[in-house]
Amino acid sequence: MPESKETTPKLLDDTSSVPVRVPPAPVPILTYQLPRTPCIFSGDDNQQDATNWLRDFQRIATYNHWDDQICLANVIFYLAGTARQWFDNNEDTFTNFTTFKNSLSNAFCRTEDLRRQAERLLLTRTQQIGETSESYIQDVLSLCRKANPSMSEDEKVAHLMKGIAEDLYQTLLVQDFRRVDEFIKRCREIESLRRRRITRTRFQRLPNVSAVSAETDVGDIRSLIREIVREELGRLLPEKQYYTNDEP
Q: 0.85 exceeded by the pTM?
């Protein structure tokens, strides 16, 4: 009689009968990017720079996802006056957008005139009353770029120092700036101290500060410089007491 072998009963796999829950697919969030509109270029105004207009047009075209073919098809809608007439007269020669850009530059880019104009403005550009140092600095740097794109840092700093407000000039004069970023950083620090002096009432008012505007009174310029120096010395060496020549 054959021996009976015990066998382990197989367990049925019931996982196949259990429904698998599939997580819902994330709902895509559709965003709509509003297209930008380039400025109109006419070529009639001497203040219009064709190079800058082309640069701005291409920035907007990139934002709007325009390829060269769409750029060439759309550019006519942003031309007016002489530039529009020029486009109509030469439209057959514009085989692609690159050809259009080169032709526009040859017709309307007055690089030499703009360079000479920037050089003239640099000779007389000064910081105006009520103008912030940041506005003055950025305008001078723009003129430097137009006058000479390869201008050295020393030359740029010299142009900035030449016309900056007198109170800032007297403070900056004692420091040696080799780079524009160092010059800008120091101007911002001085402007910040000046705003704190005006807005933060916890500072005690010094008796020798003139009430006349710093832009019109030399004595108050000196007082402002002395106060800035006091604040910086007090911040760096708070344990020491400093006196000026006009204090007992």
A: no
